[in-house]
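debug: dumping io for the single-chain case to check the tokenizer round-trip. Nothing else runs in this session.
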Amino acid sequence: MKFFSLLSLILIITLSSCSSVRVASDYDKQANFDGYKSYAFFKPGIDKAEISDLDKKRILRAIEADMTAKGFTKSANPDVLVSIFTKTKENVNIYQNNFGFGYGWGWNPWFWGAGQNTVSRTTEGTLYIDLIDASKKELIWQGMGTAALTKNVDKKQEKMNQIVTAILEKYPPQAR
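debug: decoded output
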């Protein structure tokens, strides 16, 4: 029974770690974040992001929804420019099970290590969201989120929303 409980705990931790987003942010301590009320997307920066146009649209939709929820308005004359860039890496995990089973009574050296190897590959993506003071053309805030990506087209927007929301929860920065 204890083995079953331990196995269940490991499974829960594994599943919950797969769905999480790791986030971090940094900001200019001299910036007055209360003065920023409007935004626009910084097209030259967004065009450089090395992802598909469809994924860019998903990310921009998610950013737009979160910025609106934070009280920002989209403007042709913005206070803040929003830019993004991305990185991806493939993780290869090899799980090795070297527990073999002998036959009969006693220890059989010929069966030790007859376990299984399992290989899994996941793609991990990192999204950076930059907020740039439009008048000074200076970076004032940067948020970063890293998570496992999905290949399921039906779940991509949901995953992008989750990543963007986790990143923008760090904005505006709280005094430390």
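debug: round-trip ok. The two ends are 46 Å apart (CA to CA).
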